[in-house]
Every structure is written in C-alpha cells, then in structure tokens.
Fold Sugar ABC transporter permease.
Amino acid sequence: MKRQRLFFVYACLLVPLLFFIGVRIVPIVYSFLVGFREWDLLSEEKPFVGFSNYVALYHDPVFLTSLRNTVFYVLLGVPGQLAAGLAIALLLRRIIRFRAFFRTVYFLPYVTSVVAVSWVFRWIFMKNGIVNGLLLQLGLPSQLFLGSPDQAIFIVTAAMIWQNLGFQMLIFLTGLENIPKEYEEAAAIDGAGAWQRFVHVTLPLLNPVLLFSVIIASISYLQSFTQILNMTSGGGPLNSTKSVVVYIYELAFKQFNMGQATAATVVLFLLILLLSLLQLKTLNRKVEY
C-alpha cells in the first residue's frame, strides 16, 4: 500500500517535470546549439560556425547600443520604480478611509494593456501633444521628446515605471502590513524619529520584499520590448531606445538571421542570470525578529 502511494506521488511529480523539461530545458539547450550555426530561415543548410555569431555581435554597433540602452533601463527604471512604489505604499498604509479605492486606482495601470498605455504616452508626448501644449502656454519652448535621441529613452522609461507602479506598491504594502507594529512602537518609545524608524526598523524588515522586487523589476527591464516597439517604432530615433530584445526581434523576424539572434538571446540570458545572482549575493541579508 505504501509503495502504491509513493508510486502515485512520483507519477504526479513526473508529469509536470517532463512538461517543464520539454518547454523550458530543451529549448534553452537548443538555443545554445543554434547560436553556433549560421541559421538562416530561408536556407536549408545551417553550417557550424563556432563563435562567429558572438564575434559578429561584439563588432555590431547596433547590438552594443541596444545593450547600453538595456543597462540604462535597469539603472534608471528599477530604482525609480522601487522608490515610487515604496513611497506610495507608505502613504496608503496610513490612510483608513477609501483605502480600497486608492489601491485600485494605483493598481489599475498594471492590468491595463501595455500597447494601450504605450500609445497614450506616445500621444501625450508627441509634437502637438498635451505636454508641449502646456509648455507653450507657460512660455517655454516645445520639445521633441520621443523624436529626440537624448530625451526619448527617459520618456519610455517613465512609461514603464508608471505602468508597473501599482504592482510595486502592492508588493511593498503587503510587506509593510506584515511588519509587527511593536517594533516601530518600541523604537518610538526609545526616542527614534520617523526617519530613523524607517531606516533602522522598516527597511531592514522589508529586506526579503526588497530583494524580490529588485530581482523581478530588473528582469522586467532587461526584457523591455512592447513599450519600445509601440512608442518609438522599434527603438528610434537613431536606435537611442532600442533594447536587446527589440534587437533580437528585428534580427530574427526581419532579417531572418536566427543564428546571430539566438546568440544575442544567450548573451541576454547570461546577463539576467549573472545580475540575479549578484543581487541575491549583495542584497540577501538575514533579519532576526
């Protein structure tokens, strides 16, 4: 009877394991193999070329630009998203009336279509958009915004931060509500001010939530695609907003160069893996209650 129960348990575990291997592990291994071949969708021959695809990436200025832009999205978007989300969560924690309403309002952009949000931002910051209209009314010169190589990346990052703000707020709010109030009350009795309680009590106890948020947000910005594709028509102007994922998309489905596109995918995979491990190493701190 015990063996039958164990067999049933292992059988139930084996089915999702095989599914995971089939849809996750096998494609990853296959991608590594494709990256070592000259894989043209229009050609039947796919010869082995070794590291030539990776060398081509290193000498491709468009790829290097997209890699730099992707790093910029992470460096600007992750701290901005976390800081804004935590600030709103701290404010919502203190209100009593209409709490559910405010939570819904802030969370609503996160469940809104990314394409719709991207086009709204594109309309707001277009040449004859709302923002330029306000600038002209204030006597200030109009700006190119999404048409400027220097400004476009900031507008795209702002759209990403705004849309993901609700998710970040909800995560932080959940973490704040799980912190025992006795710790803050004890610190207040000892004479600690609001800022001291936040730095020495709230933030350390929020470390697990902060670690989760940093890793999830970093992966999200490293995979930036939809906003860029819709707001800047695929990375314009002059590739100033092009991310690595957009570069891979254009290389694979516009130029049909699957070998080099897969090599770029492997580079992105390694970048995400190394960054996640680094964040786990540096931000993971054990907090004793």
Q: What stands out?
A: The chain is about 70% helix and 0% strand. Residues 84 and 273 are 26 Å apart (CA to CA). The chain has one domain: 61-283.
